[in-house]
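#onboarding

Welcome to the new folks! Below is a worked example of what a typical request in this channel looks like: someone posts a single protein sequence, and someone else replies with the predicted structure as tokens. Don't worry about understanding the tokens yet, we'll cover that in week two.

Example request:
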Amino acid sequence: MRVLVIEDEQKLAHYIKKGLEEHHFAVDLAENGEDGVLSATVNEYDVIILDILLPKKDGMTVLRELRAKGSPVPVLILTARDTVSDKIAGLNAGADDYLTKPFSFLELLARVRALLRRGKVEPQVTLQVGDLVMDLIAHRVSVSGKPIQLTSKEFALLEFLLRNPGRVLTRTTIAEHVWDSRYDNTLSNVIDVFVKRLRAKIDRAPAMKLIHTVKGVGYVVREDEG
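Example response:
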């Protein structure tokens, strides 16, 4: 899943980026409000973490502009402003959550995951298709009860596929949600390589093939006979 962090304190921004990447997120950074609006407009994100006190364009203005453009992306405000009136103003402007500094990274992570779950009837702590089970909290994957070792990027790719069972995902869509802004769209075979690695690990045990190629389009996860 892909996150945009709009934060002008570079040390803090990189701390958040490093922590989220360790939990298999792709993370882009924007250090001012103008760059934040631009990134959020031209790229697809699953969550935006937004500071309020930003240069060039403050966070409240950023938030209002994104909502005015029709952006449905969940926004978590992360700021030192901690009064009730500040929180009410942020939520009324279109924020989905509000966390004050200083903060615990584990709480930030929990809130980001809660925003990803929003709209679902039950909170998801596991994803499952067929005999494949992904534990999002423990970061474990198993097939038919047998543990499967995945790299961070393999885990992130599989998580995105499992969150969209039965939906055909183009390579562009996958890149936009699993890779960060450093990804080169001209190197589309990178995604194919990672899918091949995943198949080698998760399709070796069960009789069912889970990741299917839709020729000329992309990939889909479904429980079909191989």
